[in-house]
Design a protein that fits this description.
By secondary structure, the chain is mainly alpha-helical. The chain contains 9 helices and 2 strands.
Length: about 280
């Protein structure tokens, strides 16, 4: 694995602007899901899938693909991103078996990924596609309030984790992967998510299951953050891309969303999801 060289930031609050950027992106997703419906909503999720796939391709060997791989020529990452976006759009049509289109960019992209990154590419690529697919499903099946609760859990977790982690400090949660994440900040995120679920329940805006589901979703979001940090360290990069000047790429802003949405989808497979009014 290549060494990662990162210039230290200006003090423990040096990455505050990045956290603000993450919150703004999450709010933008909430607005998109609130005002966009039907074809526009599906188009928005397809575009996000394409952009994040382009970043994933760059971090899993597609910048320097094996010489024997000739598919798409010199514009392979862009072509793969376009295929991911179109595949997502097809899957979101709701036609019978249309969801199988999600496998297309995974299967086409595997030969171009670096040999030791093919498993990583397949796992992260599948996660990207499932998250966009799941967000549309949540919006249309469970309503806007459900999606806003989901985004609220992520924002509160990230905010509480950041400030309490910087103020209290203490042991690192997983120093080898995410040197700045502390146990104090991680636990603060759980507590914040639990409080959000409790407040919604007591206010009559949701059922009791929000009390335990919220911190569980919060933890999954934190693991999404950890997973993307691991991917960047493996690739030897600081950010997933420079698409957001000074704040990295889309994957950097969607990492917690990825973990949270996947966990919520999994919970929905084994039990009833919370009702959020």
């Amino acid at each position: 694995m290549r060494a990662l060289h990162i210039t230290p930031g200006p003090g423990k609050w040096g990455d505050l602007s990045r956290r603000v950027a993450s919150t703004l992106v999450l709010l933008a997703i909430g607005v998109l899901l609130a005002v966009a419906q039907g074809a526009w909503l599906r188009l928005g999720m397809a575009v996000i899938s394409a952009i994040t796939f382009w970043e994933l391709a760059a971090m899993t060997g597609w910048k320097r693909p094996a010489r024997h791989v000739t598919l798409f020529g010199r514009s392979r990452p862009i072509a793969l991103a376009a295929i991911a976006g179109v595949s997502q759009a097809v899957a979101l049509t709701g036609a019978p078996m249309a969801w199988l289109a999600l496998a297309v960019p995974i299967l086409l992209g595997l030969p171009g990924a670096a040999r030791n990154d093919r498993g990583t590419y397949a796992i992260f690529g599948t996660a990207i596609l499932l998250v966009a697919y799941g967000l549309v499903g949540f919006r249309e099946s469970y309503g806007l309030s459900f999606v806003l609760w989901l985004m609220g859990v992520i924002i509160i977790s990230d905010t509480a984790g950041y400030f309490f982690g910087r103020i209290i400090g203490g042991p690192k949660f997983w120093a080898a992967v995410s040197p700045k994440k502390t146990w104090s900040g991680t636990i603060a995120g759980w507590i914040g998510a639990c409080l959000l679920g409790t407040v919604l329940w007591l206010a009559g805006m949701g059922d009791r299951s929000l009390v335990w589901v919220s911190p569980l979703v919060c933890f999954a979001g934190q693991m999404g953050d950890i997973a993307e940090s691991w991917l960047k360290r493996r690739a030897g990069v600081k950010d997933s891309s420079n698409l957001i000047p000074g704040h990295g790429g889309f994957m950097d802003r969607f990492d917690a969303v990825t973990g949270a949405v996947l966990a919520t989808m999994l919970i929905g497979l084994v039990t009833r999801l919370p009702v959020v009014n």
